[in-house]
Amino acid sequence: TAGGPTGHGGPWPDGAAAIFPFRRRSAKQVTFISDPPYPQHPAPDCVAGHLSDVRSCTRPRSDSTVLPAIKAAELRIAKQEQVNSIDPVSWFCAPKLCPVIVGNILVYHDKSHMTLEWSRFIAPVLDNAILRTIKPPPARDPSSA
After folding, report:
1. Is 51 exposed, middle or buried, given 0-12, 13-18 or 19+ CB atoms closer than 10 A?
2. From CA 78, how far away is CA 20, in angstroms rounded?
3. Global confidence as pTM
4. What does the alpha-carbon distance between residue 50 and residue 104 come to, in Å, rounded to a whole number?
5. pLDDT digits over 46-63, tens only?
6. Bridge partners of 31?
7. Percent of the chain residues past pLDDT 70, beyond the cut
């Protein structure tokens, strides 16, 4: 875009480089939540086709990031721009694999969007992650009160 930053690896990272400083100036606290992993196939369809063994629907963690270079650039730019960031991949994946069912919860309702049940399940984790990124306000000097 005209007047926007360039040199960050393409239009998407250049856009991140433009929006992060804007958001930081517009809000007291900004937290960027990176994309979760994608099963890259409709999870319910896969599960329905493999009811006796849903492990075949599990994807390697290394294959579960769409556009990994762009994701890495977004996280790098967020850090450069002093924007807190959260990468939720570990909430969806074990160290090497990303299942589509955890316990008795279907994680995805299509090939990229999480189910309401999974969203509710990880909500406390997201809450804690966001709270950890929030910087406390500066302490008041008791002598100035």
Report:
1. exposed
2. 7
3. 0.78
4. 15
5. 999 999 999 999 999 999
6. 84
7. 85
